[in-house]
Structures are given as C-alpha cells and as structure tokens.
Amino acid sequence: AGFKSVAASSEKQVAHLKTLPVDKLTVVKIKGKTYYVFPNSAHNRLYVGNPEAYQSYQQLLSYQNLNNQSRVMADLGEDTGGGEDKWVEWTNNAGWTDGSD
C-alpha cells in the first residue's frame, strides 16, 4: 500500500517501538506533516506511510472485504504518537515523505 519499512537501528528506537500499540496504526504529526506508523516489534521494524499510503491501505481493506479492521484505530484524527521529540531519531535520514516531494 506504499508503506516503507524502517529498521530500528538503535536501542532508543527499539525501546520506542515497544511502546507503540500492537496491531494498530498510530497517527504521528511531525512539523505539520501526518504519518501513519505500524510497529512490528518481533522484527524490530516500523512501517511508515503518508496519507496517500494510508488511503491505499484503506482501499485494499475494502477490496478484500476484510471484516476485521482491528489494526485501524477508532479515531485516526487524533495524534497519538506521543510527541514529536520521540520521532526525531526515526525520521533523520530515513526517507519519510509526506508525498509532496
């Protein structure tokens, strides 16, 4: 759906990854840009998507007629990322994009 896989490459990132809700997308707003992140703690990875990737993900869900949408938070309009400062290490040189590049 356009999400990028980002490896947790430091102890700080691994620790942060473990604080994210399991099997749920989290909305993160950094410098006015919105990202959707999904943790894969078992493999020390974070999947990151911009609003367009999230829209593609939603379309895939509807095309596949998935009834179980437990991975989608009830209210994605709320920033639940825990503060911009926690995401600085993830965004540095990781190629995150808001789709306007």
Description:
By secondary structure, the protein is an alpha+beta fold. 24% of the residues lie in helices and 22% in strands. It contains three helices and four strands; from the N terminus they run E-H-E-E-E-H-H. It has helices at residues 11-17, 51-63, 88-91, and strands at residues 4-7, 26-30, 33-40, 45-49. Strands 1-4-3-2 form a four-stranded antiparallel sheet. Strand 3 and strand 4 form a beta hairpin. The longest helix has 13 residues, at 51-63. The protein is globular, with a radius of gyration of 13 Å. The model has no long low-confidence stretch (mean pLDDT 80).
What is the secondary structure topology, with strand pairs?
Blueprint: E1 4-7, H1 11-17, E2 26-30, E3 33-40, E4 45-49, H2 51-63, H3 88-91
Antiparallel strand pairs: 1-4, 2-3, 3-4
Descriptive tags:
101 residues, 4 strands, 4-stranded antiparallel β-sheet, alpha+beta, 3 helices
Shape label: globular
Cα end-to-end separation? 18 Å
What is the CA-atom radius of gyration, in angstroms? 13 Å
Q: Secondary-structure element order, as H and E?
A: EHEEEHH
What fraction strand?
15-25%
Q: Which strand order does the major sheet show?
A: 1-4-3-2
User: Can you give the mean pLDDT?
Assistant: 80
Tally of strands: 4
Classify the secondary structure makeup into a structural class. Answer: alpha+beta
- Count every helix, treating DSSP H or I runs of 4 or more residues as helices: 3
Query: Which regions have little confidence, pLDDT < 50, spanning 5+ residues?
Result: none
Helix content: 10-25%
Could you describe the largest sheet, including whether it forms a barrel? 4 strands, antiparallel
